[in-house]
Amino acid sequence: MSIQLLSADRITKHYNTYEGAFKKSALTFAAVDDVSLTLFKGESMGIAGQSGCGKTTLVKILAGIITPDSGSVLYKNTPVRKRSAVYPEYRLNVQMVFQNPDQSLNPRLTVESALKDLLIKRFSRKEVYNEAVRLMEITGLSEEHLLRYPSELSGGQKQRVSIAKALALRPEIIIADEPVSSLDVSVQAQILNLMSKLKKEQGVTFILISHDLAVVAWLCEKIAVMQNGAVIEYADATDIINNPKRSHTKELVDAASLGHK
Ligand SMILES: Nc1ncnc2c1ncn2[C@@H]1O[C@H](COP(=O)(O)OP(=O)(O)O)[C@@H](O)[C@H]1O
Ligand SMILES: [Mg+2]
Questions:
Q1: Is the CB of 179 under 6 A from ligand 1?
Q2: Closest CA to 57 of 116, 5, 15, 97
Q3: Terminal CA-to-CA distance of the chain, rounded, Å?
């Protein structure tokens, strides 16, 4: 039977519109509008849709970074609340990787220090260094990279380090928000290949966001298509690509870089 890892249950989040902020009135719009979705173990989920459709807001809610106006996040069928018993396990098991690796790397810390700060939460002092080396190897880097500062790494290497940081506590779920969009095209495939390897070898289930359907279809078993804050279609990746039901999904299929990946 499939294990339900993470669910959005009727999540809604409003923001002030530009006009609302300007007039200091209460004009709001739903950035995420009544979204329900479930992530199952071993079935990575892609979230696709045009810029501004609410992808980042939705996954930041799933990761516990922002709170929804209504609806709830469920971790293994239990609603996540700050004081609930399931909260520490949820925080450990749901990690995020951002579009720009600089967002998750402190320029003043070497890779080793950054990883040690995390690893010490889970491993003994003796184990920490070996774990850091292991993370370098898993992410396609080497022991010598541990001594580097972010400024001494390429964009692709920095994204590998942010993935290593996300992996440090051995999470079940990694939410990657446009993780290759800021990288050179030649490096994008390498990072996608790394995520595919982590699926197979580390048993990580991904939520991968991209504006490009081809990218999510390549990695994920399921795809949710968003438009104007709503999930308009949610199905197996092959069905979304080969048999899209909604006209907006068809537009995204036509715009996708299929064949290049
Ligand atoms: N903190 C915020 N305050 C006000 N509006 C926001 C904020 N964050 C995002 N938005 C708006 O919400 C909508 C959805 O944004 P976002 O979730 O970032 O979409 P996506 O990731 O799909 O590009 C956009 O119109 C965006 O401008
Ligand atoms: Mg976004």
A1: no
A2: 15
A3: 32
* Distance from the alpha carbon of residue 133 to the mean position of ligand 2, in angstroms: 32
Q: In a mutational test of the pocket of ligand 1, which residue from 57, 67, 181, 208 has the highest number of ligand atoms less than 8 Å from its CB?
A: 57
- Is 31 close to ligand 1, i.e. is its CB under 6 Å away? yes
Q: In 3D, which of 10, 60, 1, 68 has the Cα closest to residue 35?
A: 10
* Ligand 1 midpoint to CA 199 (Å): 29
What is the distance of C-alpha 122 from the center of its chain? 22
pLDDT in tens, 208-231: 999 999 999 999 999 999 999 999
Identify whether the C-beta of residue 183 lies closer than 8 Å to the C-beta of residue 159.
yes
pTM of the model: 0.94
With CA atoms as reference, report the closest residue to 175 among 68, 39, 73, 78. Answer: 39
Alpha carbon distance 180, 167 (integer Å): 17
- Say if ligand 1 is within 6 A of residue 40 CB: no
Which is nearest to 164 in space by CA: 200, 140, 183, 190? Answer: 140
> Where does the pLDDT of residue 261 fall: very low under 50, low under 70, confident under 90, or very high at 90 and above?
very low
Pocket of ligand 1 contains residue 95 by CB under 6 Å = no
Backbone angles phi, psi at 153, to 5 degrees: -120, 155
Mutate to test the pocket of ligand 1, among 13, 15, 22, 62 (most ligand atoms within 8 A of CB): 15
Domains and CATH numbers, the chain: 4-99+175-255 (3.40.50.300)
| Rounded to 5°, angle at Cα 34 from 237 and 244 | 25
Q: Report the pLDDT value the prediction gives residue 209, as an integer from 0 to 100.
A: 98
Residue with tokens 């880097």: 141
